[in-house]
Amino acid sequence: MKQLAHIAYPMLTAAGLLLLVAAPFEVLTEIDDRPYSQQALASTYHVDSLLGLVSTLCLFLGVAAVAGRTGPGGRMISGPACVTVLLGLMGAAFLQAVSVFLVPSLATSAPAVLDAPPSGWHAAGVIVSLALWVVGIVWLSVSAFRSRVFPRIAAVVLGVGGAATFFGPISGFLMGIGLLWIGIAGIRLKQGGA
Predict the structure, then answer these.
(1) 117-140: b or e for each residue (b if 16 or more CB lie within 10 Å)?
(2) Which residue, 3, 46, 132, 187, is most buried by CB atoms nearer than 10 A?
(3) What are the distances in angstroms from CA 160 to CA 53, 70, 124, 129?
(4) Run of H or E residues at 30
C-alpha cells in the first residue's frame, strides 16, 4: 500500500466533495414518490448514481491508501477495519455501477423488475454489502479516533455518517463533511511537513 500513500488524502477529499455535491440529488431522489422504474429515468437519479459511483471509487482508493497508517502515538489504524470497509465498498461500487449502467435500460425495457421488492440473492447481496459497509466505516472511524491518524472530531463525524446509512441523505452529508475534513487536514499536514 506504500505505492498508494501519496493519493490517500486527495482521494478522501474528492470522495467527501462528491458526497456533498450528491447530497441534494439524493434528497430529490429520496422524496420522489414515483415508482422506482420512473425515478430511474429522471436526471436527478442519473446524477446521484454517477456521483455515488465515483465517490465510492475515490473512497476505496483513499481507504486502501490509509491502511496501515500510524498515528502520532505509534498506534496503527486497524487493518481488519480497512479490509471490512473495502469489502463493503466493493459491494457498494457494484450496486452503484448497476444503478448507473443497468437500471436506466431496465426502466424502459422491464419496469416491473425494478418496481418489485428485492428478493433472493439480490436482497442478500444488498444486505451483506450494507452491513460490511456500516460495520467497516464505524470500525475504521473508531480505529482512526484511537490512533489519531485522522482528526478526532472528523473521525467521529465520519463514523456517525456511516452509522446513519439507513437514515438516507443525512449519511452522505455527514460522511462528506468528515471525509473532506480528513482529506484537507491530511493534505495540509503533508504540505507543512514537506
Answers:
(1) eeeeeeeeeeeebbebbbbbbbbb
(2) 132
(3) 21, 23, 24, 18
(4) helix 8-31
Q: Which three cell numbers stand for residue 185?
A: 487536514
H helical segments located in 32-148: 36-39, 43-66, 79-97, 103-109, 111-115, 120-147
* Distance (Å, whole) CA 96 – CA 164: 19
CB-based contact 54:97 (threshold 8 Å): no
pTM value?
0.89
100-114: per-residue pLDDT in tens?
Answer: 999 999 999 988 988
185, 150 contact by CB (below 8 A): yes
Q: Other CB atoms closer than 10 Å to residue 34's CB: what's the count?
A: 10
Q: Are 174 and 154 in contact (CB under 8 A)?
A: no
The residue behind cell 478522501 is 12
Q: Name every residue whose Cβ is closer than 8 Å to that of residue 189 and which is 6 or more positions away in sequence.
A: none
Average pLDDT, the chain: 89
- What's the grid cell of residue 167? 437514515
Sequence-distant (≥ 6) Cβ neighbours of residue 70 within 8 angstroms: 76, 77, 147, 149
